[in-house]
Amino acid sequence: MSSRRPHLTPWKAAGKRTERGTTADQVVRDTGWVFNNETGNTLTLEQFVETGNAEVDKYLRRFGLMATAGSKSIVEIGSGIGRMTAALTNVFETVVATDIDAAFLERCRETVAKFGNTSTLRTSHIADGRTIALPSQSVDVVFSYITLQHCKHDDALALTAEAYRIVKPGGRLILNYRTWVLSDAFLIPLSAIMRVLWHTPVIGEPLSRWRWSTRLGWQANRLSPRQVYAHLESLGVQLETPKAFSGGIRARRPVSIGATQVLQDEFPMGNKSHWWLVAHRS
Ligand SMILES: C[S@@+](CC[C@H](N)C(=O)[O-])C[C@H]1O[C@@H](n2cnc3c(N)ncnc32)[C@H](O)[C@@H]1O
Fold first, then answer.
1. Is residue 185 part of a domain?
2. Ligand 1, from 28, 38, 99: best to mutate by most atoms within 8 Å of Cβ?
3. What is the pTM of this model?
């Protein structure tokens, strides 16, 4: 574990648990706390994947991808143990699941074998947390959900640039982030304190495996639409129909971010700080 990335501690702790060789259902019970809010002694992999199926369906419909997915390739950044990957393999022509944790990718294959289509699946390890080992302009869609908020700020921006690098001209970026809300004034400093505690001898290790501590300490960054689009513009990217979907928008309206006109659009989400970057590469 790099001390430069203490926010990865819960993923590493969960990754070690997935390596214990227990059943897939047990892995979900042991590690569910790092993937979604579902926990409990009776949770099964099937139930866990059902939450992913419902979300994939919702997002693909909202972003207008469902009808054409069958002829497209997709890269998922931060697949975890495949909660959403299974559904993606049932819909897309090819899927590349990527994650910083290689053990999760092993379990992801297992999940897809049970509930998805392994013939369409490949995996690719993001070993350094910021570089995707895939050729430039090689994929139709790059998708990421509840992952970029947990990366170090610079890694989240680097992965955003990587998403643009690997997507084909005319291809689509569908990336989920968290922006600032008032409660972050407390949450973000507390989160930083928690990450320091994870590295404290004796208490740090067990602490990093407690759900409440993870949920606090993994609040690694906040990135607004303005920050992300301005970063992309600084790299000279060419985007068409750039949009920022969020629950916090009351009316559809274009906003200027540098020279880029970004359409802000509404997408009711449980958490107002979540937003989606949706854009075509020119
Ligand atoms: C909350 S989980 C979400 C997993 C999946 N998207 C889902 O919705 O079930 C976040 C995932 O991001 C991965 N992750 C965290 N930082 C990463 C990074 N810098 N690069 C790639 N994956 C990362 C973690 O290992 C974890 O699997």
1. no
2. 99
3. 0.93
